[in-house]
TrEMBL record:
Record protein name field: Dihydrofolate reductase
Gene3D superfamilies: Dihydrofolate Reductase, subunit A
Membrane-crossing residue ranges in chain numbering: none
Recorded superkingdom: Bacteria
Any Pfam family: RibD_C
Domain Bacterial bifunctional deaminase-reductase C-terminal per the UniProt entry, residue ranges: 1-170
Organism of derivation: Nitrosomonas oligotropha
Signal peptide location: none
Amino acid sequence: MSLDGYIAGPKDEMDWFTKNFNDEIGEELLSQRAQQDTVLLGETTYKFFADIWPEEPNTDPFAKHINQVKKIVFSKTLTFAPWGQYKAADIINGNTLEEINKLKKEPGKDIVIIGSANLIQNLAALDLIDEYQIMLEPIILGGGKPLFLNYKDPVDLQLSKSRAFTNGAVALYYQPIKNT
């Protein structure tokens, strides 16, 4: 996410993130991925990822991980979500609250959302986000696709972990404070 809260630029560009990517960030992301066995994607992110990751060699650790884990796409329009030579992604187009609660009860590792701002916003509105993992990049975009939009109520967060990188990026881990 950019310092001003965007996950993509005004034309959905993300090259600003990849040009700042380094080995430290790669290590951090891979350590997160080791704890995860299910990836949730919105339709737009799925289409972008499905064109790239299945074609990457399994020598790329991120490609190897995302190609092998369970992928679930939230879409009202897709009926099939192929993933190259790998198992197709499952599609959820029904009751999001019910489906996520079912997923959370299944045995396994953590569930992660990659990108997919609209999906994050929808799940946050349903109080289904257990942790926000944000890679804050040292750039101000001045416009684009915001990560946090249309929240009707404030969401109090508690910082559980952070890590600063030599390129100026900061990994931030926040857990929502449940108000009882």
